[in-house]
Design goal:
This protein is of the alpha/beta class and 316 residues long. It has 14 helices and 8 strands. The longest helix is centred in the first third of the chain and has 19 residues. The chain is globular, with a radius of gyration of 22 Å.
């Protein structure tokens, strides 16, 4: 997938490759021209990715090559042992979770899981979690509390599964119960928004003590398409909705809804996987170190104050 703003860069890179081939033939020396174009490409790349619109961020968050929860679980942690099932109905493949460690520190980790291709996306329900998945997440959080393990959650979903069967099995009850559970959990909670953070499907595992957000991810009460359909009755106005929703990291950080933006390599996390993994790992450990300095009472007060400050308003 190529963004419209990326097309001039792609054309320039293709031109550079053509000149390199001619230069390697030995018929003509084009090294100076190549160096000049490479410099121009670097400057253009920096300019493009430093000035992305909210809609560009939406498309970046949905990029088919964007790293998934499974990628981070495999690369950021030393090991990952998956735990299955909600002990009520089923094991929802749209949410993965289990025990993992970094060095001597054990974590309970979980997150929305999208697929890498159509077949896997159908299996994972495109990362849209059903009540069974949220109840599995709640079960794992209680287990983490029992053994004193910090919780790390990865957010990447367009929203909770909206099907009739999900409503029949108590979708909103499962979401609200998880939020209430996280509000009183006796261990630190770190949330990392790695792609799409959509509506209640995200909030159900995102009520963390520290909310971190990758630079090209989004976090919103509704998808741009959904918002456009409601406000303008026209889903094609999604880009206008993205501008209005305030779903980018810069807006959310400014308004106190997240705590930190994790920078991405130019072009997105998939352009430099190792650098992206290192940035996420470093951010998790640094924020955990801060939270572990609190006593349990101080941690809960910190959490309470954090959410009480959200949605401030003034009266005239």
């Amino acid at each position: 997938m190529i963004l419209d703003v990326e097309k001039p860069l792609l054309e320039l890179e293709e031109k550079i490759l053509e000149l390199i081939k001619v230069n390697e033939s030995g018929k003509i020396d084009l090294s100076k021209e190549i160096k000049a174009l490479e410099k121009k490409a670097r400057e253009l790349k920096k300019d493009i990715y430093s000035n992305l619109t909210p809609w560009d961020r939406v498309l970046m968050a949905r990029h088919p090559q964007r790293l998934t929860t499974g990628d981070y679980l495999e690369a950021v942690f030393d090991d990952f042992f998956e735990l299955h099932g909600d002990r009520y109905y089923s094991d929802d493949a749209a949410l993965v979770g289990g025990l993992a460690s970094i060095g001597d520190q054990t974590f309970m980790v979980m997150g929305h899981q999208k697929g890498k291709d159509t077949k896997e996306n159908l299996k994972r329900n495109f990362g849209m979690v059903a009540p069974d998945g949220f109840r599995k997440a709640g079960r794992l959080m209680k287990l983490a509390e029992k053994f004193g393990y910090p919780v790390v959650t990865f957010i990447d979903t367009p929203g909770a599964y909206p099907g009739i069967e999900a409503e029949e099995r108590g979708q909103f009850e499962a979401i609200s119960k998880n939020i209430a559970l996280m509000a009183g959990l006796d261990v630190p909670i770190i949330t990392v928004i790695i792609g799409e953070g959509g509506s209640g499907g995200a909030l159900a595992i995102a009520a963390g003590d520290r909310i971190l957000m990758l630079e090209n991810s989004i976090y919103s009460v509704i998808s741009p398409e959904g918002c456009a359909s409601i406000i303008w009755r026209d889903a094609s106005k999604a880009s206008d909705a993205a501008n209005a929703l305030g779903l980018t990291g810069e807006f959310l950080l400014k308004n106190g809804l997240i705590d930190e933006i994790i920078p991405e390599p130019l072009g997105g996390v998939h352009k430099d996987r190792e650098k992206s993994y290192f940035a996420v790992k470093e951010a998790i450990l640094r924020n955990l170190e801060m939270l572990q300095k609190f006593t349990l009472e101080e941690l809960k007060n910190y959490r309470y104050d954090k959410y009480r400050k959200m949605g401030s308003f003034t009266e005239k």
